[in-house]
Amino acid sequence: MPVKIDREYRSLVSFQAQENEPYTVRGYASTFEPYVLLRYDGVDYKERIEPTAFDEADMSDVIFQYNHEGRVFARQSNGTLNLGVDGHGLAIQADLSTTAGSRDLYEDIRTGLINKMSFAFSVDSDHYDSETHTRIIDRIAKVYDVSAVSIPANPGTDISARNYFDGVIEAEKAERLEREAREAKKAEIRKLLEKEEL
What is the pLDDT at residue 158? Predict the structure, then answer.
């Protein structure tokens, strides 16, 4: 899958086929719970999407794909994909009855062969909480697609998380080294003062 630099991908949650509604799948493309994006040097670097992040997001014609590429199985503009934000996250409902390919995808979801979702988006505004090591997404600019995914972690997730957190990790490391150097200097001065008192 070619990764676009301005797009970020998250594979976080599961979804399922609705037995009482043939060829319909429902789930969440995103939730508002914090999740770990990266573990580095014993630290969990997390991300959390604010409940208001989707308020002004462009969700004008989101499509439903498999692994963020190729064929479109449902889309908003023809009424086969519905998105909505509730207290839990970005909810989706897709009608996969329209083509043989979409019905095949539905069967893969119904039987549990595919049970995870991902979404592609771009960020308008975010900030970082250094105490909890959490990137907080305040506003999402655009949602491009929601996808059924075979493997929850995808290269886009790893690359976008690493791109964001590389700078954060380096800054935190430099801050820690500076703090350790200050403490070492203070300890050295204390030893010198103790010697002078003797």
Answer: 46
Q: For residues 105 and 120, what is the distance between their CA atoms, to the nearest angstrom?
A: 19
**Confidence (pTM):** 0.72
CA–CA separation, 197 and 7 (whole Å): 63
pLDDT in tens, 143-170: 999 988 877 654 444 445 556 666 666 7
Alpha helices in the chain, H assignment, sequence order: 100-110, 155-197
Distance separating alpha carbons of residues 53 and 8, to the nearest angstrom: 15
Two tokens at 151?
């493997």
The percentage of the chain sitting over the pLDDT mark of 90, rounded to a whole number, equals: 34
Residue 142 forms beta bridges with which residues?
58, 122
Spatial distance between the Cα atoms of 102 and 164, rounded to a whole number of angstroms: 35
DSSP for 129-160, please give it: ETTTTEEEEEEEEEEEEEEEESSSS-HHHHHH
